[in-house]
Each structure stands twice: as C-alpha cells, then as structure tokens.
Design a protein that fits this description.
Chain lengths: ~300, ~290
C-alpha cells in the first residue's frame, strides 16, 4: 500500500491538470453566471449589486417575459416530443437488436441506425428542409412555415437524428439482462413479447429512466438545430423559439434586441435552476425507488 | 465491467431456418435503415448532379447526362473549405488529446488513492459535470477569453471543449482503471517503481478505455455549432460545422455546391464512427451508467 502522505501528493499531481481545466472553464463560469445575475453593469458605475432586479425585469417586463414563457413552453413541447417519439422508437430498436433473432447482422444494424447521430445539425437541418420543401419535396405543405407545425417538424428532425442514442443506451442495458432468466421464460412457453415486458423491461427500467432525464437535459440545452434552421429569432412568429435561442438573443443581441450580459446571465441561471430542480427531483423521487425495487 | 466485446453469446433461435419472427425483425429493422440512410443518400446523389437535374428529379440517380462534379469544384474554389477542415481538425484533435491525457491521469489517481480524504468530493465533482450544461456558463467564458486575449482563436475552443469533455472522460476511465489488478501495481512498487512508473505499468491495460474516451468526446466537438459561433466566428477560425452553416446562407441558390459542402462536412465523422463504432458504443453506454 502507498503511504498516506505519498498518496495525497500523488493524487493532487495526477488530478490537477484535469481539475484545473474543468474548474476554470466549466464550473467557475457556471458559478459566476449565477453571481452575475445579481449585478448590473453600467458604463459609468461599473458592476453594482441589484439583488433580484434582473429577475424581476425578466419576469415582469411585458415583451421580455412573454418571450421567455413562450420559449419555456416551446421547450417543454420540444422535450415531450423527443420523449414520446424518440425514446419508444429507440426502445423498439434495442428490443429488436437483442431479441435473439439476429446473428451477424446485429452489429451492422446497430452501426447504421446510429449514423444520423454522427451528422452535424447543420447537415440534418438542410437535408430535411430539402426533403420537405413544399415546391418539390414529399409534402406539398409548408411544414416549417406554419406556426402549428413548425415546432413539431423541427422536433421530429431531432428525433430522426438522435434516436440512435436511446437505442444504444437501452441496447447495452438489455445485453446485461441475464440469459438464464430469458431462457427460463422461453422454456415456460412465453412469447417474445411477454418475455420482453415481463422479464427484460423491468430489469432495464433504471436505464430507461436515465435516458429520459438525459433527454430532458439535452433538449433543455438545445439550440443548434433550431438555430441552423431558423436563426436566432426562430419563427414563424417565435413559434420555434426555445430556451437556448432565447438565451443566445439576450446576451448576443439580435435585430430589435440589445445585447445584455447581465440579463443573459439571469436567463442562464433560470435555465440552470429548472434543470437542477427537475434532475434532483427525479433522482430523489424516481431513481431511488427504482433502485430499491430492482435490487 | 460489461463491454460489448466480452458479452456471453446470446440465446439464439434454435432452428437456423427463417422463421416468421426472424423475418419480421429484419423487415422492421430494414425499414428503420431506409429511414436513417435515405435522406443522407438523397443529399449525396444530388451533390453529384447538375442544378436542373436536382430540381427535375430530386430522387433520381445521376445519369451520364446529369452527372456533374461542379458542385465540389465550386466548394473548393469559392468556399473556405480547406481552412475550415484544418480548423476542425486542429480543434478536435487537440481537445481530444488533452482530454484523454488529463482524464487518464485523474481517473488513475481517483481509483488508486481512493482511501485519501478528498477523493469522494473530487469524484463527485467530476460526476456532476457529466450532466452539467457548460453552455449556460458562456457569458463568463467570453469574459475570460477576452481578458486573456484569446477571443476568436482556436485555443479558446480547445480549452472549452477540453473542459466540456473531461467529466465524462474521467468517469469513463475510472471504470477501466477499476479492472486493473491491485497485485500488478503492488508488484511494481515492490520492485521499486515510483507512483509515476506504477501508473505507466497500469496504462497498457486500459487501452480500450482510451479508444472509448477518444471516440465519445470527438463527436460533440466536431459537430458543435454554439461555441464556434460565439468564441471563434472570424473567417480564419471557422470550423467545418460553422463554415457549412455560413455557406448555406451565402450560396442559397447554388444547390450542387451546397450539397457537396454538406457531403464533405459529414464524411469524416461518419467514416470514423463506422470504423470505431464498437469503442464508441461501449464508451457511450458506460460513461453515463454510473
């Protein structure tokens, strides 16, 4: 065994490079965003502590707050579509891949079905805009030009791209299900359908829950696909505006909106708080109970 | 540790004949394959056609008359493609290399010296980072880059991407280091190896982990649009993802060139992923499963 003093020094030296970069460019900026949200920067006065003034402005100024709630509601829809479409399809793919019906083709399917997730959103956005172009594409209706259909359309493009991710998570989880359980169920005469829902699925519920919460974090962190398709003031009439694009506009500015770093930090803190609350609630309430059941 | 490679053989259907069940599984999966690859295929075939042929029959294969490489020629003459490519390459390779080196060192120490007081706190800090949305810290990041005078440089991107990738990489490497037998390290120490030499002896045993970390971190870096847009928007520092985005805006009428740009932007990562998909998949599923 290493002597405690040696261990302490070695630990420090080994961890230092990773810790320094991670703290400096990830942890500290997040913390200082929270701090910034309580200050106002003025050209003459410098930074002044203003308490919750930025928050009050964000939630009460008519235009600013209306846009914020609109982006939040849109983001909830964006998440809901991903969870309701992407996760079930990923589960179906994973179930088929691990059904025992495939032999050598399993790896080929797994790789091919993940390929869209390796593309950049710029490419995904353009491919789909081409295919659904009302002039020559497969549908004669401006899906992206209509306030009702624009957000679901963009969400489904995201689903098309990222369905491979829940597939891989659930596929790995299903691979870890003990063979003898599956075999016993099969010998008892259970159909593959029953075997899946009675034996396999209950065992992968924790991973299923994890992919749902990761989808929540990723969609609430979303920006790229909407920006690539519709820019930073995503229309029509902000119907595809999500928190990421709203955040970008507040600190970067856009036509008709002045860049405001302090307000941007406030928006970032609000988004961060929403993510933190939902994730913490999930881990305390759901995941703990799931663990207790499966152990 | 369960990796894709060392799974026990799965129970397979007894008979080697094509049962109705097996046919159904293949039919559904093939339908998904068509959905996944079809749109990509449409872009590639159209990038090889003339403009009238694209609009005349967007879903038709190029023929002898409609085949044209003009789009590719124009991408290289009018776009900034070579520069964009080398920028993406520099950023991705540097950030991945830094991530692999730093996280391997850290993960080794967090596993090896786990009895030391600080370890649970440090491990927790890295673990939280797996879910931490680094983009929400963008404003202070801009301020740091401005203060350091590295705004609109590739270095700014490299630093941020390394910070972004380290938590998942550390968590992932820890699962690999836990499989290194203690006896091996103790034997090395008995032979007089110091802590650094002991680390070097353990290193070859986690080689699969290094590959997993490299492949998992590469993808989000290469494809990111947010940080190139904010930290390195200048023409000289644009990455492929941002370059293609700008190209789409500038050459909206030149469809062959646009489609060629899209194809060229996608090819490297699709190829890399296809080659390293096994490492990638085990990396992705293990990194988040803690």
């Amino acid at each position: 065994m290493t002597r405690p003093a040696t261990a302490r020094w070695s630990l420090l030296l080994f961890v230092l490079p990773a810790l320094a970069v991670y703290v400096m460019f990830a942890v500290a900026p997040l913390v200082s965003s929270v701090v910034m949200s309580f200050f106002n920067t003025d050209r003459t006065l410098g930074s002044v502590f203003v308490g919750f003034e930025n928050y009050i402005y964000l939630f009460t100024e008519p235009v600013v707050s209306a846009r914020f709630w609109n982006a939040l509601v849109n983001n909830i829809k964006y998440f809901a579509i991903h969870v309701l479409v992407e996760v079930p399809i990923g589960l179906l793919m994973a179930a088929l891949l691990t059904s025992g019906a495939l032999r050598r083709s399993e790896g080929v399917y797994r790789t091919i079905l993940f390929i869209p997730a390796t593309l950049s959103v710029v490419i995904v956005g353009f491919i789909w805009r081409l295919i659904i172009n009302p002039l020559w594409g497969v549908v004669g209706f401006p899906l992206l030009g209509n306030q009702m259909t624009a957000l679901p359309t963009i969400s489904l493009m995201g689903v098309w791209q990222y369905v491979g991710i829940p597939m891989i998570f659930l596929y790995s989880a299903l691979l870890a299900v003990p063979n003898d359980l599956v075999e016993a169920s099969r010998l008892d005469g259970a159909s593959p359908w029953r075997t899946f829902w009675d034996i396999k699925f209950p065992l992968i519920v924790p991973q299923f829950g994890l992919i749902v919460i990761l989808t929540f974090i990723w969609t609430f962190n979303g920006f790229d696909l909407v920006f690539a398709l519709n820019g930073s003031a995503p229309g029509p009439n902000y119907s595809t505006d999500i928190l990421g694009t709203y955040f970008y506009r507040t600190f970067f500015g856009s036509s008709g909106q002045v860049a405001d770093l302090d307000l941007g930090a406030t928006v970032a803190t609000v988004i961060f708080t929403i993510m933190l609350l939902v994730t913490a609630l999930y881990f305390w309430l759901v995941q703990r109970r799931l663990r207790a059941h499966t152990v | 540790m369960t990796s894709i490679a060392d799974q026990p053989p799965k129970p397979v259907v007894d008979d080697r004949r094509w049962s109705a069940e097996r046919v159904l599984v293949h039919v559904i999966l093939l339908a998904f394959v068509v959905l996944a690859l079809g749109p990509i295929f449409v872009v590639i075939i159209n990038s090889l056609k003339t403009t009238p042929a694209i609009f005349g029959g967007p879903f038709a294969l190029p023929t002898a008359e409609t085949f044209s490489l003009d789009g590719y020629v124009r991408v290289f003459t009018r776009g900034n493609f070579i520069a964009n490519y080398s920028n993406s390459l520099i950023v991705t390779v540097s950030a991945v290399a830094l991530t692999v080196v730093f996280s391997t060192l850290a993960a080794y120490a967090l596993v090896e010296y786990r009895l030391t007081a600080l370890v649970p706190i440090l491990t927790g800090l890295f673990l939280i980072g797996v879910m931490l949305p680094i983009r929400l810290g963008t404003i202070p990041i801009i301020k740091i880059m401005v203060a350091w005078g590295i705004m609109d440089t590739l270095l700014a991107l490299i630093l941020v991407y390394t910070a972004m990738s380290i938590p998942l990489a550390v968590t992932l490497m820890m699962t690999y280091f836990r499989t290194v037998p203690t006896e091996l390290k103790e034997a090395a120490r008995m032979d007089g190896a110091n802590e650094w030499q002991t680390f070097l002896i353990a290193l070859p045993l986690v080689r699969p982990g290094l590959a997993a970390v490299a492949t998992v971190t590469m993808l989000p870096i290469w494809n990111d649009l947010w940080f190139p847009l904010i930290l390195a928007p200048g023409k000289a520092n644009q990455t492929v993802t941002l370059g293609v985005q700008q190209f789409v805006g500038q050459f909206l009428n030149d469809y062959p060139a646009l489609l060629a740009a899209l194809t060229l932007g996608a090819v490297p990562l699709v190829l890399l992923f296809t080659v390293f998909s096994r490492q990638f998949i085990s990396g992705l599923s293990q990194g988040y499963s803690k």
